[in-house]
Amino acid sequence: MNFPVTRLAAACSLAFVFTLPSFAQTTADTVVVTANRMPQRAHDLIADTTVIHAEEIARSGAGSVADILQRQRGIEITRNGGPGASTDVYLRGSNANQVVVLLDGVRVGSSTSGTAAWNAIPLSAIERIEIVYGPLTTLYGADAIGGVIQVFTRKGEGGPVVTASLGAGSNATRAAASTVSGSGGGLRYAFTAGYEDADGFSSTRPGASGFNPDEDGYRRRSANGQLSYTVTPGLEVGAQLLHSALRAQYDSGAGSYDTHNEQELNTAAVHASSRVSANWRSTLQYAASRDQLGSFTNATASGRSQIETRQDELTWQNAIAIGPDTLQLLYSHRKEDVESSTSRALTRARITNAYAAAYSARRGAHLLDLSARHDRSVYGNRNTGAAGYGHDFGNGLRATASIGTSFRAPTFNELYYPGYGLETNKPEKGRNREAGLHYDAGRVQLDASYYRNRLTDMIVSSTPCPGTGIGSCAYNVNEAKLEGVTLAAQTRLAAINLRGSLDWQDPTDETTGKQLLRRSKKHAKFAADTSFGPVKTGMELQLSGKRFNDAANLRPLGGYGLLNLYTSWQVTPDLSLLVRLNNVTDKQYELARFYGTSGRSWFAALRYGIR
């Protein structure tokens, strides 16, 4: 749960009127919620943060949230096919299960794989995305080793607004969405419904096990809503719901049966936030998420399997102002339930209780953050802590430094899966240190960050399993190093907005000396846009170095460069048109060995909003 987002933190909704700043980078006046679990100006943050605003999401023409994340600094993705396929997101070289994912403060993800269902999160619902780099276990608990990604859905603001969009593109892609939102008389509301469908392309390439040259499409239907009411000044109650149903085809050999997955993502939360006194705000939230995945490989019962993760969390958060400082006290009770149709060993529950405290001080040019947390669960007691310092030199220059510890809880698969999991597996542990320089002169913004995250008790999979010589198993053995430098810049030259980032990283398994699988040592992103009256046009360039598809570094994945172009036209104040061309050079590349990626493709969308 996050401290309730005030009007200060509410970003513009996707009303499809392109009036936001052109940059996805965080500016000094941007309000960020995730970094310290309460709304703060980016200028007052020590944590390295990026915010993706509504405009970039609207013009992305993307098929999934992961496509948008892939264009941000410090992030790489891997996917087993098209936008509906299973997707992993790597943050600063960390594993996909070392990143916490939140939907409006509700934690989502599978307790068996440890990863979030990125392919099921609907784009039509999103207002903005906050990415916080580095360990945040003291604030969000287990698994926040590489960072936290929080997706915020639309919120009502001002008079009633109705928006609608229709889109079409390559691979018979079709998309439609509509939103009704607004506020008045103490009531805020926003409701969105969306639909996406595509015939897709083959999810595998020749050479893959189960290769089938047919098209593998997907269909995603979603609905979500938020409702809050200010009962009295200082007392707010609210509720939110999200439902997304995804049907995605995949290859499982030649044949007439429609092999596919069916996945549902559901979240719900209710909260009450009260100003107990002039300097004390208390928030209580109950949140639930459901991640259900069914696989269908043939028409008989033997070809069907289903696994479901249910997470329920009760959080009590208190923010106490002590002069210019803020003390936060947090209690969390989280229960994870797993049900599997194929393994009774996985059908079990896990409870985690946590207590945390965080202190933020702002004194003149000095910034200070301190936090500590204690988690208790079946995998034992874990204590984590973090400390950060920042100094404002004036004239837009700021320096930051921080240290922090973190851990990742073993997944249910790593603990209990028959013939694979070991109940003796311990949590992975991380120890991070980083430093940064940030310069913001309005038209010019520069960021430089260095980080070094040492991981111990890494859980790896081995075939055959040590000690038995047969099968495979997960066990603690490895140490890893996630070290790197990120440079980011944005400026405006004449009428052209420019943005770019460079990542040099060394994600290394220190036990073997090998590069961690599917992560490059360098990648970069560049973008430029300009406007001619009501017309805006821009380009994006994504570059990635060589990666490896296996832990032994025997199967390389070649580097690649992707060029995207887009144009938007504000036809009237309420009507806009977007045309986008992705992978202009028709680059053939792989994010995972023998899995397909899209060649040159286009997408066009008409958007209408009335107030």
Shape descriptor: globular
Number of domains: 1
Please give the CATH architecture: Beta Barrel
State mean pLDDT (0 to 100 scale): 92
pLDDT under 50 segments (min length 5)?
1-24
Which structural class do the helices and strands define?
A: mainly beta
Summarize the helices and strands and which ones pair or pack.
Layout: E1 31-32, E2 40-41, E3 48-52, H1 54-59, H2 65-69, E4 75-79, E5 87-91, E6 99-103, E7 106-108, E8 126-133, H3 137-140, E9 147-153, E10 161-169, E11 173-184, E12 187-201, E13 216-232, E14 235-249, E15 260-277, E16 280-296, E17 304-322, E18 325-340, E19 348-363, E20 366-377, E21 380-394, E22 397-408, H4 412-416, E23 428-440, E24 444-462, E25 473-493, E26 496-509, E27 514-515, E28 522-532, E29 535-544, E30 547-548, E31 556-557, E32 560-572, E33 575-582, E34 601-610
Parallel strand pairs: 6-9
Antiparallel strand pairs: 1-2, 3-8, 4-5, 6-7, 8-9, 10-11, 10-34, 11-12, 12-13, 13-14, 14-15, 15-16, 16-17, 17-18, 18-19, 19-20, 20-21, 21-22, 22-23, 23-24, 24-25, 25-26, 26-27, 26-28, 28-29, 29-32, 30-31, 32-33, 33-34
